[in-house]
Automatic annotation (TrEMBL):
Region of interest (Disordered), residue spans: 1-20
Keyword annotations: 4Fe-4S, Electron transport, Iron, Iron-sulfur, Membrane, Metal-binding, Transmembrane, Transmembrane helix, Transport
Protein name (record): Cytochrome c oxidase accessory protein CcoG
InterPro entries for the chain: 4Fe4S_Fe-S-bd (IPR017896), 4Fe4S_Fe_S_CS (IPR017900), Cyt_c_oxidase_cbb3_FixG (IPR014116), Electron_Trans/Redox (IPR051684), FixG_C (IPR032879), Ig-like_fold (IPR013783)
């Protein structure tokens, strides 16, 4: 046959699912091995501290009310002895700035400390994994249980785990709502199931996401949903303490008998046991270098140190160190000396300055606030005795938690005075609107706008006083 003769084309073979390129990596379920050690103790200490605060704070009382309540309905935020109003939103802005700089500061020093120890995703995943371990067993038993066919024991263990997870998640959702709605009202609603629509929604919503994120998705949240993992590299530099595998000391890897000097068998200290991978909550191999999935929990350090102890090798094959320290073989003194570098000094200085300003603002915050609005419906009118009257509406905010009586005074023009009642009683942590008529002689000022001042003073405490400026209109 002539080589130029066209050959019939063969039909393309269908591509098997195994050989096809996929856009997304399919998830491989992790069976995280439990670990003990110094850093594990620190993680559990943070779990206890954060959850005692979270679950316990709504139950604390202060002045016959909930100590910490962000009351959305009343638009008042009760935080121990302080009562904040919507006008105090700048305190929230400053607090968010402090949180951001704290994150920058600690990340520049020691990486993802927040993620590894105090992030709610880490904390609740730790709690849910502990429940799972108690009910289903260690990582090997959990894997076998997953692979086993459905039977009575598997159904019982799975069902018990989900029920306990669900109860913890619902209680978490209930506690979350108790920060925004009074706890005593919520407890009464439990007995009658008389929750408001938004309260029930947020209890179920927050509880469902706690169940989903901490019980089901776990490391997927950290790897694919958390934005911090994506921009952490911007905050790192060669002097940032991160969890690092000492490749120079550990390679080449290989198994050997206990107590054998690795140099005599041409190997490094790493015995390639893989336990550092088994204990990792995100399933990475730290021996491949720092990866964005690493949340800085240091579980691999605890695991590796235990293996090193069993092999009679020095600890620290996996440890907190810096890129420069690893390259230049620095000790702890050199590492600490490089912690105080320009970046951390700038972050620290700004953080301290903003924190001091925040504390000063809270300490000097005036518990009395007065807003003055002139009645524009009647700008100025002549009344008896030839006097000119302007009407003002004063909004008196008593930010203390005691009922107070306030007295009004006015100044700024000759003969100016207040007509009618000159005092008002305001309930604790509430607002009272007052309408005042201010009178001045016709010739007391120039035609047009004239400045005057209202002085509002508590009758039982003269130091509790506010002076507000406004204008008085005289007809031309």
């Amino acid at each position: 046959m002539n080589s130029s003769t066209p050959q019939p084309q063969q039909a393309a073979k269908p591509t098997s699912p195994e050989s096809a390129d996929t856009l997304y990596e399919s998830r491989k379920k992790l069976y995280v091995r439990a670990v003990t050690g110094v850093f594990a103790n620190w993680r559990w200490a943070l779990v206890w501290i954060t959850q005692i605060i979270f679950y316990g704070l709504p139950w604390l009382s202060w002045n016959d009310r909930q100590a910490f309540l962000l009351h959305l309905t009343e638009r008042k935020f009760y935080i121990f002895g302080w009562v904040f109003w919507p006008q105090d939103v700048f305190f929230l802005a400053i607090l968010l700035i402090i949180s951001a700089y704290a994150l920058f500061f600690f990340t520049a020093i020691a990486g993802r400390l927040w993620c590894g120890y105090a992030c709610p995703q880490t904390v609740y995943t730790e709690i849910f994994m502990w429940i799972e371990q108690k009910i289903e067993g260690d990582h090997i038993k959990r894997q076998k249980l997953d692979q086993a066919p459905m039977n009575g024991e598997k159904l019982l263990r799975r069902g018990t785990k989900f029920v306990v997870w669900g109860l913890v998640a619902l209680w978490t959702g209930f506690t979350f709502v108790a920060y925004f709605s009074p706890l005593d009202e919520l407890l009464r609603s439990v007995t009658t199931f008389g929750f408001g629509p938004w309260e029930l929604f947020w209890i179920l919503f927050y509880g469902a996401f706690t169940f989903l994120f901490a019980g089901v998705m776990r490391e997927q949240v950290c790897k694919y949903m958390c934005p911090y993992a994506r921009f952490q590299a911007v905050m790192f530099d060669p002097d940032t303490l991160v969890i690092t595998y000492d490749e120079e000391r550990g390679e080449p890897r290989g198994t050997r008998k206990k107590g054998i000097d690795p140099r005599t068998v041409s190997k490094g200290d790493c015995i390639d046991c893989g336990i550092c991978v088994q204990v990792c909550p995100t399933g990475i191999d730290i021996r491949k270098g720092l990866q964005y999935e690493c949340i800085g929990c240091a579980a691999c350090i605890d695991a590796c140190d235990q293996v090193m102890d069993k092999m009679n090798y020095p600890r620290g094959l996996i440890r907190y160190t810096t890129e420069n320290a690893l390259k230049k073989h620095w000790g702890s003194k050199e590492i600490l000396a490089h912690v105080l570098r320009p970046r951390t000094l700038i972050y620290g200085t700004i953080l301290v300055a903003i924190s001091l300003a925040f504390v000063w603002g809270l300490a000097t915050r005036d518990p009395l606030r007065v807003d003055v609005i002139r009645d524009r419906a009647s700008l100025a009118r002549e009344v008896e005795d030839g006097q000119i009257e302007n009407v003002y509406r004063l909004q008196v905010m008593n930010m203390t938690e005691a009922p107070r009586a306030f007295r009004f005074e006015v100044s700024g023009l000759p003969g100016v005075k207040i007509g009618g009642e000159q005092r008002v009683e305001v309930a604790p942590a509430s607002t009272q609107a007052v309408t005042l008529q201010v009178l001045v002689p016709y010739d007391a000022g120039k035609p047009g706008s004239n400045p005057i001042h209202f002085q509002v003073t508590a009758e039982d405490d003269s130091s509790l006083s506010v002076r507000e400026e406004t204008t008085f209109l005289l007809p031309r």
